[in-house]
Design a protein that fits this description.
- There is one protein chain.
- Helix content is 66%, strand content 3%.
- The chain is built from 4 helices and 2 strands.
- Strand 1 and strand 2 form a beta hairpin.
- The longest helix has 41 residues.
- The relative contact order is 0.04.
């Protein structure tokens, strides 16, 4: 092998490994170092790129799961609305105004439960719907 001389200072442990490999293969230490440098430059997927690809794959899997979860939630809500509409009779005309007022009050109470759930960091499913809206309870304990 011909080429310009370059001095390389290796740590003792690495120098010993290069020497052992060169002896085992019947080669010079220089040829082992040259091969290692060539392999390093020839590699198309640098370790940092490999790590980035793994991180991207994990993120993609998490996004796919979130998309599936979102689709499942959407289908569940749509099914609930469909069943609710199929099994609730229409409101009589003379009750429409009071029903609208009652629905408005119930919706406001629902929004309060949602706000309390978001503020507390707990699931809305854990809230006791029979507790007062201002002191919402979770599993019988004050939040």
């Amino acid at each position: 092998m011909s080429g310009a001389a370059t001095s390389v200072y290796l740590p003792d442990d690495l120098k010993a490994k290069v020497a052992r490999l060169a002896d085992a293969q019947g080669r010079s230490a220089s040829s082992v170092v040259v091969e290692a440098v060539r392999l390093k430059f020839a590699r198309k997927d640098e370790p940092a790129e490999g790590i980035t690809i793994r991180h991207l794959a994990r993120l993609e899997a998490r996004v796919d799961k979130a998309v599936r979860d979102g689709a499942l939630i959407k289908e569940t809500v749509l099914l609930f609305v469909r069943v609710w509409l199929e099994h609730n009779p229409p409101i009589e005309e003379h009750l429409e105004e009071s029903a609208a007022a009652s629905a408005s009050a119930r919706f406001e109470r629902f929004l309060d439960y949602v706000a309390n759930s978001i503020d507390s960091g707990r699931s809305l499913a854990a809230f006791d719907v029979h507790a007062p809206a201002d002191g919402a309870q979770v599993n019988g304990a004050a939040s």
